[in-house]
Amino acid sequence: MLSACAINNVVIMGRLTSDPELRQTPTGVSTCQITVAVNRGYVPQGGERQADFITVVAWRQTAEFISRYFTKGKTIIVEGSLRTRTYDDKRYPDVRHYVTEVYADNVSFGESKSSSQGGSYSTQQYSQPRQDQYDGSASRPNNAPAASVSYGELGNMDDFEDVIGDSDLPF
Fold first, then answer.
1. Around 105, how many Cα atoms within 13 Å sit in the side-chain half-sphere?
2. pTM
3. If you placed Cys at 89, which of 84, 95, 105, 118 could pair as Cys (CB 3.0 to 4.6 Å)?
């Protein structure tokens, strides 16, 4: 018997449109909602570059990480999953709103430590443990692994060598 397999992975890189605001649920779970402006990969002939404004939702330590280290205009890389939801408008009972959001699992800096310094990039990253419940109604179980923050440097791009053909690959 074959089982259904679903893949729902999203990776975006763009700039925050405003400073993040950390909030708490009634049960004390941290959450943060940000909007990321992501430039499109093409420019219409005779036009200007366009951007999409994507809503990102983060929970727990990922939300705290974003609110602590990111501000308006900073470049952010978000890995997560796409979620959709609906809600009925309270003012207009016959109106239903449809919302599409990226739920963040991993968040990284997308620019150098200082824009004035060239060549060296920071890859500080925060990874949220994957959980099925992102609604803030339950906290992390005692036996669940704690998420970690990893630090590293990519170094100078001169450290990499060009690969001319497939025969030069080690695999």
1. 14
2. 0.64
3. 95
To which H or E segment does residue 63 belong?
Answer: helix 60-69
Pairing between strand 96-109 and 75-88? antiparallel
User: What whole-number distance in Å separates Cα of residue 103 and Cα of residue 129?
Assistant: 12
Which residue in the block uniquely carries the two structure tokens 């570059």?
49
**Tokens of residue 167, six digits:** 């025969």
Nearest one of 143, 77, 71 to 104, comparing CA atoms = 77
Structural domains of the chain in order of their starting residue, each with its CATH number: 10-40+50-138+146-160 (2.40.50.140)
Give the tens place of pLDDT for each residue, 56-65: 999 999 999 9
Parts of the chain with a pLDDT under 50: 116-124, 130-160, 171
